[in-house]
Structure formats: structure tokens, C-alpha cells
Automatic annotation (TrEMBL):
<keyword id="KW-0444">Lipid biosynthesis</keyword>
<keyword id="KW-0443">Lipid metabolism</keyword>
<dbReference type="GO" id="GO:0008654">
    <property type="term" value="P:phospholipid biosynthetic process"/>
</dbReference>
<dbReference type="InterPro" id="IPR016205">
    <property type="entry name" value="Glycerol_DH"/>
</dbReference>
<dbReference type="Pfam" id="PF13685">
    <property type="entry name" value="Fe-ADH_2"/>
</dbReference>
<keyword id="KW-0594">Phospholipid biosynthesis</keyword>
<keyword id="KW-1208">Phospholipid metabolism</keyword>
<keyword id="KW-0560">Oxidoreductase</keyword>
<keyword id="KW-0521">NADP</keyword>
<dbReference type="GO" id="GO:0050492">
    <property type="term" value="F:glycerol-1-phosphate dehydrogenase [NAD(P)+] activity"/>
</dbReference>
<protein>
    <submittedName>
        <fullName>Glycerol-1-phosphate dehydrogenase [NAD(P)+]</fullName>
        <ecNumber>1.1.1.261</ecNumber>
    </submittedName>
</protein>
<keyword id="KW-0479">Metal-binding</keyword>
<dbReference type="GO" id="GO:0005829">
    <property type="term" value="C:cytosol"/>
</dbReference>
<dbReference type="GO" id="GO:0046872">
    <property type="term" value="F:metal ion binding"/>
</dbReference>
<keyword id="KW-0963">Cytoplasm</keyword>
<keyword id="KW-0520">NAD</keyword>
<dbReference type="InterPro" id="IPR032837">
    <property type="entry name" value="G1PDH"/>
</dbReference>
Amino acid sequence: MNYYYENEMFKLEGISTEHTISDIDIYIGKGILKNTSSYIKKRNMGKRCLIVADGNTYLAAGKALAENFAHDGFAADVCLLRDRGEERIEADELSVGQVMMSLEPEPDFLIACGSGVINDITRFVSYTAKKPFVSVGTAASMDGYTSVTAPMIFNGKKVHRHGNAPKILVLDTEILKNAPKELTMAGFGDVYGKFIAKADWLLSNITTGEEVDGQALGLITQALEKLTRNVEEICSATDEGLKAIIEGLILAGITIFTTGQTRAVASVEHNQGHIWETRMLEARKPYPLHGTAVGCSTGYYLRMYEYFKKINIKNLDKEKAKNRILNRDSFRNKVVHCFGEEWLSVLEKSNKCLNLNEEDFERHYNSIVNNWDKIVKALDFLPTWDEYREIYKKFRQPIHAEDIGIPNDLLKHTLPYSTFYRDRYDFVFVMNILGIIEEITDMTLKDYQKEKQKWF
Ligand SMILES: [Zn+2]
């Protein structure tokens, strides 16, 4: 499946002629912010809106938007999310309360003017207050623009709430390229992580027969090719570079709609990012941006995939591997460091991979061994760790987890067990079955220790 543009509207071949996808109109282009009111008029969404922004996004796009609206006969109120000084604005009770209390005078629709958090707050309020919303992105930083779930913080804990997808999404590359570089690099990391997701999906297809959706896989492959072809352009933050990231993020979002799941876009690299976020939040410590965490996590897993491909499958100790994972108590003692007691107890209730019996073990183990050559061949497309480091070096972005605020101790425990975050088959699970995950984790961590970052 290919994509194309029709008057800045991002379109997929063979999908609805009316909308880009589902009910969403997606516009990507240079200098298109000023067209936002005409996009809205096309959808008959009414004339009164509430723009949700923070101090930075208001200056980046909200102000121009409000002026444009006034000129085009819209009534626009602004809800400026409260600045929290050193701390980041979060999608939590304070932000939601602020937006809810700004719903008077009653708007016909909302506008999320920003990226991750502002969109999450707005999609949640949009759903709760039954008001449609338009998203005007200010950074190419994450793949959730078209999402219908809102990751939020409630009572100091990460929760996922229902949300609406926007009716219209406007991504003006002129605005995106002025976003802080850290946000753009986060977007890059979020797309780059799809290499791991793709590899894990193909792996599962071979060993468990899990169905792979060819169209979704094709979209992700296109996104990755465009991304890696445009590293230079991204580095110089050109319109073309920004477009490569944003198209990747949008294509990823689209696969979630077309397949009804996140398989094509998220695997252990995302799991680990989510675990880091949750555990850091628990510890009341700051945590990295979603895409920054995913990009960093991807580096470690690319290195682990290199070791994975070199496993001498005929030389493994099957009995030892079996005892390791089937001895519930000792195995649990390892995994509990990754999730903490409370969280692990919840996961154990639903996650089949945490409740394996001997029969399951035999089935998984044998299928991996019997299909080994096929597996290794399917992983040919993966970039090397060297390539990854070269790119991050070019971007002058850290690759070590501790440099993005993740303690080494946490990293050591999340790398080998992130697979148990959800019931999904991936190469970390496979290495747990084969009984070699701790060994490969250690080798990877040693490689990272040796890798002194010279580009700071
Ligand atoms: Zn993501």
C-alpha cells in the first residue's frame, strides 16, 4: 500500500476517498497552519473552539491560529496549561481539571495545540465531554497523534484512559522544525524502534504462526526506509527530514487503526520504555520523553539481536533452560526486580508467558530450534548496532540509558524481562525460553560500558 498527497492531505491508496483513514483528515505540509480554518469548515464542526496549549506551543502555533480564526469568523478561547517551573506539564488531574473548567462558554470543538501530553489531555477531555477535537501538532515527537487511548497520570500512577482520535490533524513542517531538537529526536527514536517491532512480529510468525498483516508490515517498512534514507535531512531539520519522521509516525498510527492492535509498532523496545516510565514515576524521579526512551531502548535491543542471531542453537542446554524458567520461585525472584512486587502480581494473573507449564516450554523451545535457520534469515533487514551508533552520534544524542536518566540498576533488570510487560511473543521471550537471556544481557551491557561516548 502506498501513500500520496492531495492538496496537502495525506492519503493512502485504496482507503476512503473522503478521509485519510477512518474518520480522520490528516494534512502534512509546509506553511499549512493558515489553512486550518478551511480544513475545519470542510468538516462542519461549528464556529466556537477552545485551544488547549502551553506557553511554548501557544507561541509556536496557538497565537497564529487564534489570529487566523478571528479573521475567518471563528470564536476561539484559549486554555493555557499552567506552567510548572522545573517540572513538565503532565496529562494529570491538574491539566484535565483546567481544560474541563475552560469548557464555558461551551465550545463546539477543541484544538490540541502541541504534541504528546497536550494531545493526550485533549483527547481524554474530548471523549469525556463529547466534543470533537482538531490536533495541530507542534513537534514530530511521538506516534500517538491518531491514537484513541490516552496515557494519563492519575494519583501519581500511569493509567490508560479512553480518548477520541482527532477529526483533523494538521502538521506544518515550518512549525515542526522549530520544535526543540530533543523532541524531533524523540520522534526519530519512536519510528526507529519499529525495526525491533517488525523483527519480533516476523519471528513470532515463524515460530508460533501468529498472523502477519502484510499491509501493516508494508507501511512500517516504508516508514523505516524513508527514515533511514533521510538521516542527513533530519539532522539538518529540513522540511524533507521532518516529513520523513512525521510520515513514519503517522504510518505507524495508521497500522493501529487498520489492524486494531499495536503489534506492528511496539514490542520490547516500547515495553522497556513504558516500564522505565512507570518505575521512575513510582520513585518520583523525572523520566525521559517517550520517544527518547524508545530510541535508547532500541539501541540495546539491536545489540542483543546481533548476539541473538549468533546463538549456536545446537549447543544449548535444554534441561537447564527448562529448569530455569519452570522453577517458578527462583524465576519470579529475577523478574520481580523488573516490575516490583505489586505490578508483577497483576501481570501474573493475565500473562500466559509468566505461567508456562512443561508442555508450553517444550512447544516453544522445539519450534524455535526447528525453525532457527528461517528465523535468522528473516532478521536480515535489521540495522547493525554500529549503524545505530553512527546515527545517534550524528544527532549528538546519548545512547546510554543513564544519560537519559535511567539508573543502571533498573536497566539491568528491564532488559532481560521487558517481554513480560504484555502477553506478546518477541525475541526477549525467546531468549528466556532458550535460557540465555542473562548472558546476552551481560554481554550487551559490557559493550555499552566499553563504548565511551566521544560525541559530547
Ligand atoms: Zn511510541
